[in-house]
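Long-time lurker, finally posting.

We've been working with Pyrroline-5-carboxylate reductase (Actinocrispum wychmicini) and I want a structural starting point before designing mutants. I don't trust myself to interpret raw outputs, so I'm hoping someone here can both generate the structure tokens and explain anything notable. Sequence follows.
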Amino acid sequence: MTTIAVLGAGKIGEALLSGLLSGGRLPEQLMFTERYAERAAALTKQYGVRVVDVPTAVRDAEVLVVAVKPQDIDPVLDELAPVISPRNLVVSLCAGLPTSLYERKLPNDVPVVRVMPNTPMLVGQAMSVISAGRHASPQHLVLVEEILGTVGEVIRVPESQQDAVTALSGSGPAYFFFLVEAMIDAGILLGIPRNVAEKLIIQSAVGAAAMLAQTGEHPVTLREAVTSPAGTTIMAIRELERHGVRAALLAAIEAARDRSEELGKAHES
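Top reply, 14 upvotes:
Generated this for you. Predicted structure of Pyrroline-5-carboxylate reductase:
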């Protein structure tokens, strides 16, 4: 099987390692880089996967998954450039960074696939969206789908849509967490104990997500099924519309898209 190195073992990098192991990969088929020795030792102890430096990762692994923060990409590319070759596939999980950045900084013909995952990867429920760079083949995309399929769902889009994807699904979990937090606070305001409010709202969120995923119904249809004439739900919906919640979400997601574009442009020179 393909050998995979995860460059950067933060939360997303660790989640990918855990998912790959759960999906049947052997520890000897995996490796990772990590700049903090204490964390590296803890991960090796927990997962049985060896920690390596970047040149060793390039030498021993076919797939290099770059899982560092966008602002930390330059030192990684500087380490990769002298040792990488087209035999390595680079899989970038860095928000906002285009495949053209890697293609410009790395030797000619190195294949790159851009990915926008999200944090539900930590529980095996990621939404990962992939796009091929100029030198990535259909076989490379299939391999990346296989790798990321161990930690959730995977779809393909043109790279021109990746900044919008970052705003929608990459940042998306944070919007849901924000809404859940507000709804729990509302429960407390109405006199419900916090632990009870948390249980009510979290399970409602889980159930609503399952209905969306399993019924195939449009969100409007499902919402209307709860909205009785002159009932409690329509009164709440009226207040949400009066306070511009829909417009605020549109503006927020547009702002996230713009920031993703800015992250990419910061590395154009």
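Before you design anything, note these points.
Residues 72 and 94 are 9 Å apart (CA to CA).
The chain has a mean pLDDT of 95.
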